[in-house]
Structures are given as structure tokens and as C-alpha cells.
Amino acid sequence: MKKPFLLVVFLLTLMGLASGQELVVKTYVEKTHMSPKTGTAIGFENQYQWEYGAFFQETSLVESFMMSEADKAALPRHYEKEFYGLYFAVPVMLREQFVVKANVRTGVSNGENFVITPSLLADYKLAEHIRVGMGLGSRAFRPTLQGSLSFVF
Which residue has the higher pLDDT, 64 or 127? Predict the structure, then answer.
């Protein structure tokens, strides 16, 4: 499952370096109605602030340690443990230090279910290569919250 993800990341890296776009590496935490998830996204951003790339997200380690085996067994059968795929983000509002993007992630959950998740993400530029972000999204028609830290190369 991770091999296709790594292959996609490698191909995107080669394409991005060849075209001279900025490389964006992002780590994020997403709070869903079931549990918090941690994720990593690697993508490219062009001169118009359009962003595209690949991501991998899994259940938070904190949750795994805090839940008993009985609690884990009581989770729904389709409980999401990992989610990976491709994403793209289009700017909705652009300012010098601040940008709001409409983001769509599409991929595979638990290696068997196809999922599309829309969200609205805001990034604030702390330094030339560092951004912090917040976002509001939707997963299974329920709201999600997301916080992120991005490095732009």
C-alpha cells in the first residue's frame, strides 16, 4: 500500500523539479468525528498558488496508545486507519502573507474504499519558507478540523 504512494511521490518530485515549481512539504493533524488523524503531504505549488501532490494519513499514535483492545473492537467495521492518495488545492483568496485554498483529496481508505474529501484551508506565511495553517473540511458529511505546518522549498 505504501509502495504506490512512494512511487507517486517520487514521480511528482521529478516532474516538479523539472518544471521549477516550489516543493511543499506539509505535516498536519485532522480531527474527525471518530478520532484525530496525522498526515503528511508532499506536493508542488506553481506561480499562481495552485497546489497538487500526494498525501498519506493514518490514525494518531496517541489514540492507539490510549484505547483499550475492547474499545478498538467496538469501533465500526469501516473505521479509517489509513488514507492515501492525491490532492489539489486552488486559491480562493490571495494576500501577500495569507492564502485561502479550496482543497480536494481523493484516494483510498484502508486499502479498499475510494474517498473524496473537500476542505477549505487557510495558510499564513510566518517566514519565507514556513507556513502555518488551519482548515475546515467534510468527511462522511461530518465536519473536520485541520491544523498544519508547511515548509516550502
Answer: 127
